Amino acid sequence: MSISTKIGTIPIATGNPFTVYANTAIDFSGFNSFADRPDIQGTGALVINRGNPDNFFDPAFFGISPREALAMDPQHRLLLEVAWEVFERAGIPAPTLRGTDTGVFVGLMHSDYSSRFATHELESHLGIGSAGSVASGRISYVLGLRGPTMTVDTACSSSLVAMDLAAKALRAGECGLALAGGVTVLSTPGPFVSFSRQRGLSPDGRCRSFAAGADGTAWAEGVGLVLLEKLAEQTGGKAVRVVLPEVSGMSISRDSEGRS
How far apart are the C-alpha atoms of 145 and 166, rounded to whole Å? Predict the structure, then answer.
């Protein structure tokens, strides 16, 4: 199994994943400060003071009306943008995939965008605007893909499980190409508040795993997708696309302590 291309915005300030490692080496941070940081002792308070903004979206490019775009979860918007870029970087014009058996496998666990609107003039669109199942379906619908399409929620492992399912679908012959990955945009402070109350978030938004100074986790928001293809088909006769990492094997398990 080969990965023909990969792309994402993690975090937005880095521009693309190819600069993440360089930024890490120079201790660069792509986080911005929250405008308001209430008393952490109060109900509904946050313990952190840094985060990331959402990106911009061009609905007309994808044939979506501005009205519907406002009701779309930012996660859906990012997935559409990055899905198009994945095919572009692989040298595959997205329109040429219409009608093919290309599959879409998306990991997504948060869908709180529509909860921000109690009553709203866009409520006719809000029903599907934040639906997890629609996140992957939008990609297939807009690009006209007819392969297996699904959204997976296994919490923190969602994107990896999506990638595993994509690889299995390729091996089973259910699709010739598979788009796989995950997205997270926290549209409400709910997750921040919950973990802040548990003192589970790092106040400065930095993880220090296994270090003496570790003081909590930090939420990762962004989107990342890879394009998978069976290596035998990719290299059969002649190589058409540059092959990035190869996937030799994957599996899913759950241990007795609740980690998956």
Answer: 14
DSSP string, the chain: -EEEEEEEESSGGG-SGGGHHHHHHTT----EE-S----TTSTT--S--EE-------GGGGT--HHHHHHS-HHHHHHHHHHHHHHHHTT--GGGGTTS--EEEEE-----SGGG-SS-TTHHHHHHHS-HHHHHHHHHHHHT--S-EEEE-BTBTHHHHHHHHHHHHHHTTS-SEEEEEEEE---SSHHHHHHHHTT-B-TTS---TTSTT---B----EEEEEEEE-HHHHSSSS--S----B---------TTS--
- pTM (2 d.p.): 0.79
The answer to whether residues 250 and 167 touch, using CB atoms and an 8 Å cutoff, is yes
Helices 74-89 and 132-143 cross at an angle (nearest 10°) of 40
182-217 confidence digits (pLDDT tens): 999 888 888 888 888 888 888 877 888 889 988 888
Residue 82, pLDDT above cutoff 90: yes
Within its chain, how far is the Cα of 240 from the centroid?
27
Q: Give φ, ψ of 256 to 5 degrees.
A: -70, -15
Q: Which residues pair with 181 in a beta bridge?
A: 106, 225
Give the burial string for 164-173 (b: 16+ CB within 10 Å, else e): bbbbbbbeee
Can you tell me which residue has the tokens 């009205």? 67
User: Cα(31)–Cα(61) distance, rounded to whole angstroms?
Assistant: 28
